[in-house]
Amino acid sequence: MTTLLGVMPVVLLLACSRQLSSPAATETATLTHTTAVYRTVYVSTASQLTSALANALPGDSIVLADGTYSGHFTMAVSGTAAVPIILQGSRNAILDGGDINTGYVLHLKAAYCTVRGFTVRNGLKGIMTDGTVYNLIDSVRVYNIGEEGIHLRTFSSHNTILRCDISYTGLKTPGYGEGVYMGSAKNNWGTYTGGNPDKSDSNQVLNNHIGPNVAAECIDVKEGTTGGLVSGNYFDASGITGANSADSWLDVKGNYYNIDGNTGYNPSGSVLVDGFQVHCVYSGWGNYNVFTNNNCTVNASGYGFNIQLSGSNGTTVGNKVYSNNTVTEAVSGVSNIALSN
C-alpha cells in the first residue's frame, strides 16, 4: 500500500483502490480531513512511462519495472517541497534513447522531483535539466552518451546530483563529453538565457563516481554560475581526450564554489595535465573558489591545483587552495598559488 508522507495520522478513513488496466497499475490512498492523494504508479512499458510522467501529481511515486524503455522521456510536472514526484527503479530499469547522435534520454523541466536508481543510456545527452529547482538525481547510472552525461542548464538551481555513476560520455563529440556540466558557456547565453548569464546556481554534486572514459572533464562549472558544492566525488581520468582543452578532472569558471573531499585518480599515460583548474573565460568569473581536503593522484606534468591568475578575459581573485589537500605525482607541484592554512 502506498506510504502516506507529511500528513499527521488523525482520525482516518483509508480508501484504497488498485487499477490494473492500461496504461499502468496505480495504488491510491486518501485521508479524510485532507485533500492528500498520494499514488504509486507501476509502469513496465515506454508508453506507460510517458503517460505516467504526463499525468503525474505531487506525491506520486512512479516505479519502473526492470526492462528497457526505448525513447526520449520528459518530466515536466512539478511536485512540492512537502511531496515531490518520484521516478524510481533498479539499475536494471533502463531508459534507452537508442542513438548517441540525438536527443535527451531524460529531460527534466520541473521542480521538486526525484529520479532514483535506474540506468540512462544511448542519447546525445543523458539527463538534461532546463529551468529546474530543488530536484534530486540520486544513484542513477549514466553511460554510452554522445555528449554530456548530466547537464544542469537554463537557470537550474538548488539541484543535487548524488551517488550517480557516470562513464563513457562524449562518444559523438569528445569536447562536449563532460560527466557533469553546470550552466552554459557564455557563447550559448543568447540561445538559452536571453543573453544573460545562465545562473544555474547553488547546485550540489555529491559522492558520485565519474569516469572512466569521460571524454572531457569529469565536472565542468561554467561562467555565470555561483555558489555550488562539489564534494565526496571520485574522478577517474582514464579515457579523457583533451578535446576542447579538457585536461583536468574539474574546471571551475564560476564563482564561490566549495570543492571539498574529492578523490582524483589518473593512470599514467593519459592526457590529463592538472588535477583541478580555475579559469577566467569571462570578466568577473572564476573567483572566490575554495579547495579543501581533496586527494589527488595526478601522474601528470602539471599541478594538483592550477589557478589561472590572469589572461585575455580578465583576472581571477579570491581563490584559495588549502594545505589539507593531498597531491601526489604532480610534476609541477601541489599548486601554482600559495597554500592557505
UniProtKB/TrEMBL annotation:
<keyword id="KW-0732">Signal</keyword>
<feature type="signal peptide">
    <location>
        <begin position="1"/>
        <end position="24"/>
    </location>
</feature>
<dbReference type="InterPro" id="IPR006626">
    <property type="entry name" value="PbH1"/>
</dbReference>
<protein>
    <submittedName>
        <fullName>Coagulation factor 5/8 type domain-containing protein</fullName>
    </submittedName>
</protein>
<dbReference type="InterPro" id="IPR012334">
    <property type="entry name" value="Pectin_lyas_fold"/>
</dbReference>
<dbReference type="InterPro" id="IPR011050">
    <property type="entry name" value="Pectin_lyase_fold/virulence"/>
</dbReference>
